[in-house]
Amino acid sequence: GMHTVVSSVTLSECKDHCDLAKGCVAIEYDSGDGNCELHSQAPHHGSGSGSLSCYRKILWDSDGVLHIIPAPNLGRQTWQIERYGYQYYLGNPRSRMYYASSKSFCASMGGALVWFDTTEEYSWFVSNWHANIARYYSTKPFDVWIGCTDSVKDGSFVKDIDGSKCLTFWAPGEPNNDYGGAEDYIHMRVTNFLWNDLRQTHGKYALACKRIVPGVREVV
After folding, report:
1. Beta-carbon neighbour count of residue 11 at 10 Å?
2. In this structure, are residues 115 and 159 in contact, taking their beta carbons and an 8 Å threshold?
3. Cis peptide before 93 (omega within 30 of 0)
4. What does the alpha-carbon distance between residue 156 and residue 166 come to, in Å, rounded to a whole number?
């Protein structure tokens, strides 16, 4: 596998080198001399490090302590799934964010929080959700933010990506716009895959991003 050494760089530069190097999934960084090692598989140091293979990138520092960096916190990520002319990224359920941070993260990847164009796409996504999270992170999924809001016009939910009408899958009794009419955002519950409206700072939820496959024109 890959084993490339870059000398005299900062930790941030080391992460950038990994992001840009094809096949790099892990870095070793020595804060003493600034050496940055790029790896195509997680390096094994000491006891128990093998159990961390569910993390795409890890940091081993010169102090002899293994520092884990969950996927959403280390540079650009990899789009994991491609279907319906879109690519999907499912974040580590252990790393949860408020709506604004989640939206910004997906935008930094060139996409938006997940939305659904058809009932078929929604059914495919939820029926594979548990299996995909188990595959990528060896854990169970957690509720995710949906890329739709009625913050512009109350009661009219539109997509973050383009402002067009959002296809919705509400839980019974939703949207109820509790909290004085301030519930303008949506999360999807992992228990039944149905949607609930809530405030953008009501809670921290997992990431699910989506974008059009680069080079593919969107079919209208």
Report:
1. 15
2. yes
3. no
4. 9
Please name the residues in contact with 51: beta carbons below 8 A apart, sequence gap of 6 or more: none
pLDDT in tens, 153-192: 988 999 999 999 999 999 999 998 776 667 899 999 999 9
Looking at beta carbons, which pairs linking 163-166 to residues 24 or more positions away fall under 8 Å?
166/115
86 and 212 Cβ atoms separated by less than 8 Å: yes
Tell me the C-alpha distance between 184 and 157, whole Å: 8
Over the range 105-123, which residues count as b (16 or more CB within 10 Å of their CB) and which as e? bbeebebbbbbbbeeebbe
Beta strands 58-60 and 26-29, pairing class: parallel
Confirm if 210 and 160 have CB atoms less than 8 A apart: no
The pTM score is 0.64
**C-alpha of 65 from chain center:** 26
Identity of residue 13: E
Separation CA 104–CA 142 (nearest Å) = 19
- Only one residue has tokens 């969107």, namely 218
What would the pLDDT profile of 36-92 be if each residue is shown by its tens digit?
888 776 655 443 333 333 334 444 444 444 343 444 433 345 788 888 889 899 988
| CA dist., res. 192 & res. 198, Å (int) | 17
- The C-alpha atoms of residue 193 and residue 2 are separated, in whole angstroms, by 40
